[in-house]
TrEMBL record:
GO terms for molecular function: DNA-binding transcription factor activity, RNA polymerase II-specific; zinc ion binding. This is Transcription factor gsfR2. Residues 101-121 have a biased composition (Low complexity). Residues 100-131 are annotated as: Disordered. The keyword Metal-binding applies. It comes from Colletotrichum fructicola (strain Nara gc5) (Anthracnose fungus). PROSITE patterns: ZN2_CY6_FUNGAL_1 (PS00463), ZN2_CY6_FUNGAL_2 (PS50048). Coiled coil: none annotated. SUPFAM superfamilies: Zn2/Cys6 DNA-binding domain. Keywords: Metal-binding, Nucleus, Transcription, Transcription regulation, Zinc. The keyword Metal-binding applies. Residues 9-39 form the Zn(2)-C6 fungal-type domain.
């Protein structure tokens, strides 16, 4: 007899991290808000051989109730909530007796556990027998570990080191990227899978998308209407967001994905208006720069808290980075590999989107201040994935295949890159295989050990304002045999 599953909270309450009364057909909270109320589907599992022999139905039900915690009660933060919410991972595909990385509680009555010696906790369980969610997050440790969310700062550089042409090329690149997002649904800081069909696509970003599309059809005859719509869209978005101050993370109010969406939306508006020829649009965009910086800090802090929560609650020792490569020989069937690749890919896309958005926003604010003739303090640098092909991979299997290919080849060069980054004061030791997971301010090793064509467009564009356009161009020319790249827009 299959165990009776505990009723899970509805999806809407789970995503908003609010208490659900689990009413049927609709919970009170969803009913009050006039939203559709759906509960996660619970699938039956096959009884294990040792459970099917010599156990009464009551004993099986009692043991399962003790050993199987509620997945959605884990204190793993919004990232794990996002992982467990459609379309990140369908928990219906997981075994119903899935365990966390923590041991199950012992039965209260010692006599009750006597007939069930097979149910005793096994402290030597291998990683392949762990909770699939915990195992998949363990695969993601190279980009989710709390140490990878550290912001590094450089000593104050000399002033006036970049000509205006370098800065204006950077802003033209941003405008090109926003236009590319409108045309293809994808650019170097907004990933196609984040808001693909069936995925979470908040209204603030939908409005930004349609506004950007409208802006790129602007003519002298209709620009007054375009500017008016832009102004009203930004005003409406600002009014719809929670009011917070400098000391508030607004974490109880927003999940990390909500933070990411509103920062990306406001940044799109900022690029459209700040670098437009209209003085009024530029002035209006300047008013919201402090808000953009505040939201960006809150986004980073929210993601950091999520990473800490995942590390403390769900992440076992990783076997997927270089120093643990000897443990990679666990057999996995094809379906298990696909599901694991998909969940790791989705976590990476979310994590990398946060990193790239934070980097591009902070750099843009600094570049604009420099163009105005003022001096901006360095906001710091962060780790991100600089390897070409990973961000633009069209699917999770392609992404996973490229990761495995990079892990198998050119290992000596990547290990040399890792050592150099560590010696220069970076945290390049977290670089996992050939993904070029490097700190933005300590990435000089790429100039010596990688070709410009092997580095992502986002990284090359970022390097033009970190190291200078001339130096990046020299690197691109010296490594042109691996492929030519364009650095100007």
């Amino acid at each position: 007899m299959a165990r009776i599953s505990k009723q899970k909270a509805c999806i809407a309450c789970t995503e908003s991290k609010r208490r659900c009364d689990k009413g049927l057909p609709s919970c009170t909270r969803c009913d009050d808000r006039d939203v559709d109320c759906h509960y996660p589907v619970t699938k039956r599992r096959r009884p294990r051989p040792h459970e099917a022999v010599g156990l009464s139905e009551a004993a099986v039900s009692s043991a399962a109730a003790v050993a199987s915690p509620d997945l959605f009660s884990l204190d793993a933060g919004p990232l794990s909530i996002g992982l467990g919410s459609n379309p990140w991972i369908d928990f219906g595909n997981l075994p119903s007796d899935v365990n966390t990385a923590q041991p199950a509680a012992a039965p209260v009555n010692p006599q009750a556990s006597a007939p069930l010696p097979q149910q005793a906790p096994n402290t030597t369980t291998s990683d392949t027998d762990r909770d699939p969610v915990a195992r998949d997050i363990a695969r993601s440790k190279w980009f989710l570990a709390p140490s990878t969310w550290r912001i590094d700062h450089l000593p104050t550089p000399p002033r006036n080191i970049y000509p205006t042409s370098v800065l204006t090329n950077f802003t033209r690149g941003l405008q090109t990227w926003v236009h590319r997002w409108v045309l293809h649904g994808h650019n170097p800081f907004i990933h196609r899978s984040m808001y693909a069909e069936g995925n979470y696509f908040p209204s603030c970003l939908q409005d930004a998308f349609t506004s950007a599309s409208m802006y790129h059809h602007k003519t002298p005859q209709n620009e007054a209407f375009v500017y008016r719509i832009l102004d009203e869209r930004v005003t409406a978005m600002m009014a719809s967001q929670p009011v917070t101050d400098e000391t508030s993370l607004s974490v109880p109010l927003l999940e990390t994905r909500d933070h990411l969406a509103r920062v990306q939306a406001l940044f799109v508006y900022t690029v459209l208006r700040l670098f437009d020829g209209s003085i009024s649009q530029r002035a209006a965009a300047e008013v919201h720069l402090p808000t953009l910086s505040l939201w960006c800090r809150q986004l980073w802090d929210s993601a950091s808290l999520d990473a800490n929560a995942l590390s403390e609650n769900l992440v076992p020792v990783s076997k997927y980075c270089n120093d643990m490569s000897a443990q990679r020989n666990n057999p996995r069937d094809e379906d298990d590999t696909y599901d694991s690749d998909l969940s790791t890919y989705n976590l990476w896309v979310l994590s990398e989107s946060v990193r790239r958005t934070w980097l591009i926003v902070t750099c843009t604010v600094g570049v604009y201040a420099t163009l105005k003739g003022s001096w901006s303090e360095c906001p710091g640098g962060a780790l991100f994935t600089a390897r070409a092909g990973l961000w633009d991979a069209p699917s999770a299997p392609r992404w996973a295949s490229l990761c495995r290919e990079l892990a198998a080849g050119n290992k000596d060069a990547y290990e040399r890159l890792t050592r150099e980054e560590t010696q220069t004061g970076g945290v390049g030791g977290t670089c996992c295989d050939g993904t070029f997971f490097v700190p933005s301010f300590h990435s000089e090793g790429l100039f010596r050990n990688a070709a410009a064509a092997d580095v992502d467009e986002f990284a090359r564009h970022l390097f033009t304002i970190i190291w200078g356009l001339d130096r990046v161009e020299s690197w691109a020319l010296n490594t042109a045999s691996a492929g030519e790249v364009c650095l100007t827009y």
